[in-house]
Amino acid sequence: MLRQPPSSAAGLQPLSRECVPRDLGPGDVAHTVLEGPIARPQPTQQAPDSPEPVLSLERAFFEPSARALTLCFPIVYAEMTTRKGGKRPKLDKRHQNTTTTNPKRWEMALKEDWMRGGLADVSPRQAAAVAGEDRGQAPDRHLPDAAFASILPFNSMDCRQEEIVQSLMASYCEVGGINHVDCGALPSKQAIASLCEDLLQVLFPGFYSEDAVSSQDLELMTHELVASIRERLRTEVRRSLRLRDQSGNHHEEAMKLVCDFMVKLPEVRRLLQTDVQAAFEGDPAARSYEEIILAYPGLEAIAVQRTAHLLYTLGVPLIPRMMTEWAHGRTGIDIHPGAQIGSHFFIDHGTGVVIGETCSIGTRVKLYQGVGLVARSLAQGQALAGKKRHPTIEDNVTIYAGATIVGGDTIVGARSTIGANVFLMESVAPDMVYALGDQEHRIRDRKSTPVTKAPKTPEKEAV
């Protein structure tokens, strides 16, 4: 029987990419986890009667050079170091003294060896071992089937690399508008996502942190969060300002904008408190404020939009939209940072709600899933940039699921109700109900011919 690598991660120690050990000999087999935190490979002796160890896609056996290759390149790489007569991949002599504390030098050296085809191939038997076929087991499905295609000779994988790279370089020259080179760094999507998460911790202390927060620690925690958010946001704001104007470093302007933003966060908290209250009062299924803050996607989308709206009104480019799109991806609710939203705003269920940039929403407005407050679709859409394009919703309006309200001239009057699935392109006076007419329900045999009737027009009625 072939000795299997340990099934648990016991004994695996955290290891950074800069600290790949090189202390394994040619007779040793190393194992490590290919996904998750990088673990320190531990030497394990091969069974005496085992001419060829068994691989799995979750743990692979490889020597130091191959280990570094696994860290440098996003592919599954398996190299058998103990197969009788097998080749042992080595770095070129001029790279043998390369230290592992410099991953870039490792990457350059390994790329050169890869280009020369100096790394050994994986035999069919080894590939069968990876798939579990030689043991009569089902293939390892921890990684997708496409991973099997990655265990290929590097010579065959690399044969057209130069052609591919040159064709991409030609594309970079010919296809403009989607390249960003020889310019300053753009705001980081990862950094903006992290900032949104920390801002939610500031706005809802104790709700977005894994550990319990005591009143004694609250001030210290807030100090640390505010300082961290301020410095990281300043960096991203400076990058966004440089995108608009590449002259100067914009350090002082970015700092002022960030400070003006941070001092308004208490006002955002006051508005969010009214939003939580509106959700609790408007949804009989809600059992507590805690349930609303932790479980309702609409509140999270509103919270991010209200903070992004502050940056939008301060004139910060790009970042407000990145923030609301982060929330859009998490909640399915798309609220433009430019939208003006009053207090006690409630989005029930939420998925599919779209609120455009120039939309104006009053107080105590309630929306259901799939509602769209949108602009007319025109061929020359940029001609309307900066103009009022989205509807105005006055106070105490309820809009039911699937309704679409279009146009900058459309006003839904106070205390009105818009029924489900309505397509509205005209204003509605206050205290009105705008709904589809009675829809006739028919039950017929599948083989009979349906009767077509003219659709009924929407009905308006006074409340």
UniProtKB/TrEMBL annotation:
Alphabetized UniProt keyword annotations: Acyltransferase, Amino-acid biosynthesis, Transferase
Name of the molecule in the record: Serine O-acetyltransferase
GO biological process, one term: amino acid biosynthetic process
Region (Disordered): 1-29, 444-463
This protein's record includes keyword Signal: no
Molecular functions (GO terms): acyltransferase activity
Keyword field contains Zinc: no
